[in-house]
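Hi V.,

You were right to ask for the full record rather than a summary. Here it is.
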Amino acid sequence: METSRLEKLNRAFTPKCVVVVGAKKENDYSFLRAVSTLKGNCYSVQIDPNEIPGIEEMGIKNFSGLAEIHEPIDYVICAVPRGISPRIVADCIKNDVAAVTLYTSGFAETQTEDGIRLSGDITEMAKAANLNLIGPNCMGIFNPSVGLRFGPEQYTDAKGPVGFISQSGSNAGGFVQSGYLNGVYATKVVSFGNGYVLDAADFLEYFAQDEDTKIIGAYIEGVPRWRPFFDTLKEVAKKKPVIIWKGGRTGVGARMTSSHTGSLAVDSALWDAAMRQCGVIQASNLEQLIDVAKGLIHIGPFTGTRMALTGGAGGQSVAIADAFADAGLDVPLLSKSSYEKIASFFVLIGSSFNNPIDMGQNRREFIAIMDILAEDQNIDAVVMQMSFVMSLRNPQRMEETIATLLEFKEKSNKPLTLAMGTNFPPDQAQAVHDLEVRFREHGIPSYPSFERAALAIKKLTDYYKFHSE
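Predicted structure:
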């Protein structure tokens, strides 16, 4: 991406002046409300006299055109009917706007004559003028650090290391919201829809050079420029972890992507081979993408697959062992010296100290057990199964458990992960969330099921192994 285009795109992601064109009462002026948190100037362009009073009541100055705004315009959000969009694009070009997002849909994805013609018109205009056009059929940019949002409900009180690229507006919004709830905060997010001018390859290149972005996530439906995308992805993945959720992997899904963003299907075998060659982490859904990102944030690089599993009762120990084995991870026996140490104090009635370790009556020996696991040469990482229901009933035990886990984290270089049950009363949801936050603050990720913890860890070990060879 040439320097001038990159500089203008950076202005759009960190704008000092944003203009919303076409805000309407019908959708509660949602884009204007979204950018009301902007650390900069926000203006409106609207010529409908029925809409202007509502805009001005919000304390936002309205203009009849971009030319009336006498300061550099970094970013325009355009929410006008598709037939008017070429006029707005032309106005952005005339007034040297750094970038414009076309929220409007109804272009080539409709496979209609008018939609295809309008697609060609706006694409030709923007490319000829070197205008950074995002979309159409998208939500645009989210950057919490400068208060730039595309939804009024989105956060501005946190900033993290993950940049997210999405062809889907709803999946971009889903990442913002679900990521926030799971402590996976964004640097910047872009929903680029049909991607007529700027597509996935361009945004990969942008996030690769963005110093705040340490991890890149993406939801991609189609790749119109395969070679530039593949070449860019291969280079970017050498510098930063890239997690991609590919939409339209099934026949039905591919049919839907065609009508959603006009994307053409990519052969699954070709896609998988390309992702393996680039060293990309693949996710099947948003949940997996966030789980892997959480692991990348909190767990340092490691390639060992030998897991010590502990903390659960008998049936839970069986279930967690199956989950980790099914994911392709090892659950080996401990070393002979570890068993000798454990046998010196472990009460076997209702308990077991193979691997997994069913502690049963031995919870007072939790510190000693964790110290042994920290030293065991047969173990690469430790996974602690926790029942928040039992822990919340006994606050003192919970505090002792937390202290032990934090001590393990400080003393050992072995990754520590929590796998926690979701079976808790609704009125305890906030208390459970607060505990998860406490662990995250100390670099200990938690997952709500054995299966999700196992899959995230397996994807991490595969990733680090690929990039260490």
